[in-house]
Amino acid sequence: MPRSQQRLKRIHRALEAWFRTYGRDLPWRRTRDPYHILVSEVMLQQTQVDRVLPKYHAFLERFPAPRDLASAPSGDVIRAWAGLGYNRRALNLQRTVRTVIEQHDGRFPETPEELRHLPGVGPYTAGAIACFAFERDVAFMDTNIRRVIGRVFIGPDDGPAWSERDLLKLAEVAVPPGQGYLWNQAVMELGALICTAARPRCTICPLRSECKAYAAWRKADETIFEAPASTPPKARAIAERQAPFSTTNRFFRGRLVALLRDLPPGVAARLRELGPRVKENWTDDEMPWLENLARTLAAEGLLVLDDSAGGSVLVRLP
After folding, report:
1. Whether pLDDT at 80 is above 50
2. What is the DSSP letter of 285?
3. Cα–Cα distance between 312 and 118 in angstroms, integer?
């Protein structure tokens, strides 16, 4: 057996054993329902598991089946999404389900290629549904998978850039036949709990002895300790300065939608009266900015805007 295949078998055995012992008991891991898997995957995009858990249960209680979500007013879907951010995801989820109802008689396609034709479903989500709902042996990339595959098979993050194509090829080769579900869940879990972005916990990683990044980091540490005392240590930036989130348009978009959620269904509010509640230290000079913000949200289907009400701009959820 080639050495590369022997190494892969060692990686498979070590990661499977670790996941069976330490993998979290998450509700979407107890189902193969493609609708439930879709809801969980959309919610987990850029959102921590702890925040998703209560919303996942509440959302499925409110919309227990695809037809319930497809037939619901969009405003109700946005209200049910409160607390998760990125409200467009809620509407994209509803569009996806409506297409499944209208074009596939309520049955989800089972292959990544077919799933990619659904609106709002990209390569990752298509692969995740095919794997986690239908147990297809497929490779796909999210942030955690990308990081683990890159570090284990290529090397440290700050080395040569990892091309998406090369990573996907490596991920495809790494999937053990007949074990795609377990493998992909385990890789994602390792990236979430151990092989994290900022502070990987290499000392307790089950793949430490097979990881190219760990080998390079260990060699670098040895070089530092062996160098003369006069040699200055290398400095590396570990964080980037960013503008506070509370000053971004995404923050204000979320604030405006959140205020409209508090209104009864079908009830509109004057946009000018919402200004001081959307933005601290509000002035009337900022009204054109707020109107532009509202028009963008309206174009995305996240609110309904009516500027024909006697000079007042009225806004409500759809």
Report:
1. yes
2. G
3. 38
- Is residue 212 within 8 Å of 154, Cβ to Cβ? yes
DSSP assignment of 190-225 equals: HHHHTS-SSS--GGG-TTGGG-HHHHHHHHHHHHHH
Mark whether 41 is an active-site residue: yes
- Positive or negative, the CA dihedral 85, 86, 91, 93 is negative
C-alpha distances in Å from residue 149, one per residue of 48, 81, 143, 176: 21, 32, 10, 14
Residue-wise pLDDT tens digits, 119-130: 999 999 999 999
Cβ-contact 278, 251 below 8 angstroms: no
Q: How far is CA 280 from CA 117, 216, 275, 291, in A?
A: 43, 49, 9, 16
How high is the pLDDT of residue 240?
29
Task: Give me the mean pLDDT over the 159-176 stretch.
Answer: 88
**How many distinct helices (H) and strands (E) make up the chain?**
15, 3
The catalytically annotated residue of 16, 41, 110, 164 is: 41
Distance CA 122, CA 116 (A): 6
pLDDT bracket for residue 242 (50, 70, 90):
very low
Chain Cα centroid distance, residue 63: 21
